[in-house]
């Protein structure tokens, strides 16, 4: 493997500067293709200084939550993290931050993932034919698949999986991040092209505000097209109708809250954009996820499909 595709020693230094309780790490496996660590951090009023690393840093929430107050940017930013929340830090960027509690929760279990910039660039080139013009989300997004995969990789490291496994995992992670979070389209019959920027604007709105009472008009307004044209265009680009994409986002967070918190079903429904608990229960059932009580007990399925028009259309 070329040196450019190796994790920088500065990533381990940056990780070591975080006050944390380590639960698992790929460092013991001696991998050079990526660095992954699962740990617990606690809310604290002191400002923490993290040194820069050339690798891309990905923070993946597992349990609990935190509000991350970031300094050194204008304006000052505050981002809320919870289960399956994913945030990104550009390579070469140091951080000054403070960890604040969320709804009284002071501990946050998370995974820190470090990928070489060259691995990300190769994935972007494979998907788009270009390494230019990348735009990562400005705040945390939901990605339960990435959270689950990070734990699979850590278990493989604990079993002593080889460097070849680490290289394959690093390339899968890079492709997943590029395709899922850069809004890029894989090369194929349609050739090399960026996702329609109008739809990208609507996706950004949904990803950041899906817990709000969004309507089809709101989404179309963000895309600056009529709502009739928007629904067709969104489905063509994303492969699913906008209402289905919206409710899947809501249900992904709902499943995480039911699994990882003690919030009541009514509170979970309200925090994930459902105006009525009955509508929330119906959406879970339509998705094949089961009742909230079954999900909390570990017997429910993660939602895969849903006819979610009730979530964006006025209720009787």
UniProtKB/TrEMBL annotation:
<dbReference type="GO" id="GO:0003700">
    <property type="term" value="F:DNA-binding transcription factor activity"/>
</dbReference>
<dbReference type="InterPro" id="IPR050204">
    <property type="entry name" value="AraC_XylS_family_regulators"/>
</dbReference>
<keyword id="KW-0804">Transcription</keyword>
<dbReference type="InterPro" id="IPR018060">
    <property type="entry name" value="HTH_AraC"/>
</dbReference>
<dbReference type="InterPro" id="IPR009057">
    <property type="entry name" value="Homeodomain-like_sf"/>
</dbReference>
<feature type="domain" description="HTH araC/xylS-type">
    <location>
        <begin position="200"/>
        <end position="298"/>
    </location>
</feature>
<dbReference type="GO" id="GO:0043565">
    <property type="term" value="F:sequence-specific DNA binding"/>
</dbReference>
<dbReference type="Pfam" id="PF12833">
    <property type="entry name" value="HTH_18"/>
</dbReference>
<keyword id="KW-0805">Transcription regulation</keyword>
<protein>
    <submittedName>
        <fullName>AraC family transcriptional regulator</fullName>
    </submittedName>
</protein>
<keyword id="KW-0238">DNA-binding</keyword>
């Amino acid at each position: 493997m070329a040196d450019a595709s190796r994790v920088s020693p500065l990533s381990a230094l940056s990780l070591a500067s975080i006050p944390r309780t380590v639960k698992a790490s790929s460092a013991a496996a001696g991998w050079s293709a990526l660095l992954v660590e699962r740990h617990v951090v606690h809310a604290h009023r002191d400002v923490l200084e993290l040194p820069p690393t050339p690798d891309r840093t990905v923070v993946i929430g597992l349990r609990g939550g935190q509000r991350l107050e970031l300094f050194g940017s204008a304006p000052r930013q505050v981002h809320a993290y919870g289960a399956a929340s994913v945030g990104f830090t550009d390579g070469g960027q140091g951080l000054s931050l403070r960890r604040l509690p969320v709804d009284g929760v002071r501990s946050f279990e998370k995974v820190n993932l470090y990928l070489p910039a060259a691995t990300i660039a190769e994935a972007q080139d494979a998907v788009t034919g270009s390494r230019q013009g990348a735009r990562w989300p400005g705040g945390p997004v939901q990605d339960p698949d990435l959270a689950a995969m990070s734990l699979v990789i850590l278990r493989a490291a604990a079993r002593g999986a080889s460097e070849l496994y680490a290289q394959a995992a690093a390339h899968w992670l890079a492709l997943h991040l590029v395709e899922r979070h850069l809004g890029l389209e894989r090369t194929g019959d349609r050739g090399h092209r960026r996702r329609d920027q109008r739809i990208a604007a609507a996706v950004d709105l949904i990803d950041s505000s899906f817990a709000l009472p969004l309507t089809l008009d709101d989404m179309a307004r963000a895309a600056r097209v009529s709502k009739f044209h928007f629904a067709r265009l969104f489905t063509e680009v994303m492969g699913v109708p906008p209402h289905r994409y919206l409710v899947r986002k809501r249900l992904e967070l709902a499943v995480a809250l039911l699994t990882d918190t003690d919030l009541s079903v009514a509170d979970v429904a309200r925090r994930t954009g459902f105006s009525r608990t009955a509508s929330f229960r119906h959406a879970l059932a339509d998705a094949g996820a089961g009742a909230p009580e079954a999900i909390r007990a570990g017997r429910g399925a993660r939602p895969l499909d849903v006819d979610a028009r009730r979530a964006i259309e006025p209720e009787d």
